[in-house]
Amino acid sequence: MEYRRTAVIKLDTPEGADTHLRETVEQFKYCANTASEWCWHGDDGYHVTSKAKADDALYDQLREDTELTANLVQKGIHQAVEAIKSCVERLKNDQDTSRPTFSADTAIYDKRSATFHRDRVSLSTPDGRIECDYILPDDADLPPTKYVANEDYEFRRATLHRRDGDWYLHASMLKEDDDTDTTTEHRTVLGVDLGVNQLAVASTGQFWSADEFNHWKREYENRRGDLQQCGTRAAHEAIAGVERKEDGRFEMFLHRVANEIVAEAAEHDCSHIVFEDLTDIRESVPQTSWHHLWAFRRLYEYVAYKAREQGVEAVQVDPRNTSKRCSTCGFTHDDNRNGEDFECQDCGYQNHADYNASKNIGLQYLRRRQNADDGGAPVDVRLNRGTLTVSGAYNLPATSEA
Ligand SMILES: [Zn+2]
Prior knowledge:
This protein has 2 domains: 2-180, no CATH class; 187-209 and 259-395, Nucleotidyltransferase, domain 5. Strands 8, 9, 10, 11, 12, 16, 17 and 18 form an 8-stranded mixed β-sheet that branches. It has 9 helices and 18 strands. The protein has helices spanning 17-41, 51-65, 70-92, 145-148, 211-230, 233-267, 281-284, 290-309, 353-370; strands at 2-12, 106-110, 114-116, 120-125, 128-135, 154-163, 166-176, 187-194, 198-202, 207-209, 272-276, 313-317, 337-338, 341-343, 350-352, 379-382, 387-388, 394-395. Helix content is 41%, strand content 24%. A hairpin with a 4-residue loop joins strand 16 (379-382) and strand 17. By secondary structure, it is an alpha+beta fold. Residues 326, 328-329, 331, 344, 346-347, 349 line the site of zinc ion. One of its GO terms (molecular function) is DNA binding.
């Protein structure tokens, strides 16, 4: 039996290290984006999904263009190939996709480009190795300390992240033991509800507002309307320009939200991120425009491939009743929901309607797992404090979860 966990470790960077780490992630992004561009266009009109082929074509050039070590250059190329692979999967299923771009400040390390200790890490940069101490919470029973301090867990690889000026290591850790009973693995999931006012709401109580997105959308629509009135060829070209700019801006925004959702899952030690199946969302949420639907699909796609990097899996579940059902007692009724307010007509539970839905989405996955062939490993939904089990009972601190 293998247990995979992601430990999110804040780093204490020595004086002057910031510049070199930033240089590392910039050059890493350059490798990934260059590789994505090449693999997307491929040769003979086929997308390239072979790491060996991409290495052959790109490695020498990228070693020359950057000051990264061989291993980091390769990791950058491979990150792009993995993303292209998931695009090709989507194309096979007739789903929308577009060339992956890498904008987050990250770099992927393994044991050749980093040395992982229990209290510090040494990272390869263009300026040689840099050693950073871990900043670990004292509580040894909680992640990340629980895993970092436990010799049974081995460091496999890690992604270096820069967030709000600080540096973090998202370390993939593995514990192997002889226990062959696969049903005992405990899973914790993050439920995520997508919507037109709150773009995403996680079962941990994190909200991502759609205000910015909706504001730009209106702005662009007005500009396009004005241009359409002109009807000239120049105006048509200007409209195309507006659309290109619009898509780029929205994609950047969605990448940012996707990174934050994945970080939320990693920080709360979740093995799965659960979304609703988007196939019939326009029926269940009638105010969903095609534009929102595009954003939801893109966001799911981004989360899915960014999550995989962290050893976290994104899944979709049947969305039926997730907005009308009470996440506390299970009572399901149309009257439970009134716009953004949820009030259970049976038990009186009150909360933001999208937050209630996000918990139901997580619970829906739990129920599906219970009927799984392997007998269903125990699964919990991660809340802002503690977790929720399939019976609706809280684990750990039951407070603040009213
Ligand atoms: Zn209720």
